[in-house]
Structures are given as C-alpha cells and as structure tokens.
Amino acid sequence: MTEDTPGTPPQPGSQWYDQEAGPLVRPYAMTGGRTQSGPTGVHFDLIALVSLDEGAPGIDEDTSLGPEHRTLIELCRTETQSVAELAADADLPLGVVRVLLGDLLERSCVTVRRPVPPAQLPDERILREVIEGLRAL
Q1: Could you read off the pLDDT of 32-83 as tens digits, one per residue?
Q2: Rounded to an integer, what distance in angstroms lies between the CA atom of residue 58 and that of residue 9?
Q3: Nearby residues of 117 by Cβ (< 8 Å), 6 or more positions away
C-alpha cells in the first residue's frame, strides 16, 4: 500500500511535518551542517541592514550558490533589509539566514551595516535641550 491508512505504522521516510508542508528539510541541510557564519564567525545582529553589493562580480552566474542564497540575493536586490526581515521574507530560520549571509558576505555579494552601539548614540538629555532650544526660537 502506498498511502498510510489509520492504524498502520508509517513507512520510513513517509512522515510529514504537517499535511500541507511536505517533508521537513532540516536547517543543517541548507547550511551544510555549519552553525557559524563564515570562518571568522561574524555575528549578524537582527537589525543589521543588508544590501546587495552592485559591484559583486557574476553573482547571477555563480553556480555554487544554493537556492536559499539566491533567495536572499533577490530579496536584497529590491531593497535594503534587516536580517530579521530577510529571515521572515525568505521563510527560513534565523540561524540559517545568518550562516547564508556569512557565505554571501565572504563572496562580497552583500554589504552589511551594523547598528550603532547604544554608547555612540546621543545622550537623551542633550536631545531634550536641543528640542527646548528649538521651541524657544
């Protein structure tokens, strides 16, 4: 019998994650078993902005890029997005997106602008004084 009927044990490899999703692809299959993004272990903050590097040579002809890499490239082609937005739009786990972005960063396909650390942001007191000064004009 090719279909599972109630009361019969499922055949190996025929389990479904849910009825409409199809077989589950494990994240390590998409990243080749890697959990770190690149050899330097670059960490991508959730709000880091990723954009396509227009000067990247031959990204459309690169056959070593997987379908998930290409999905991220296409998403970055339309607009600059945060790492969290890329994960949501590509419907991929965040850890997988970080590893794939590390691959693309190594190949100079994308550029990443990291968020400004809180210590480098202006002090709230100074901003309030500027606002009060502008109101006084």
Answers
A1: 666 566 656 677 888 889 988 877 766 667 677 888 888 888 888 888 899 9
A2: 49
A3: none
The pLDDT value recorded for residue 135 is 93
Q: Which of 23, 111, 34 is nearest to 66 (CA)?
A: 34
The closest of 81, 73, 63, 61 to 100, measured between CA atoms, is 73
| Closest to 95 in 3D by CA, of 25, 27, 39, 17 | 27
User: What is the C-alpha to C-alpha distance for residues 69 and 71, in angstroms, rounded to an integer?
Assistant: 5
Element holding 112 (H helix, E strand): strand 110-113
Comparing CA positions, the residue from 85, 62, 76, 67 lying closest to residue 111 is 76
Phi (first) and psi of residue 50, to 5 degrees: -115, 130
Written as one letter, the residue type at 104 is L
Report the C-alpha gap between 34 and 126 in whole angstroms: 45
The model carries a pTM of 0.62
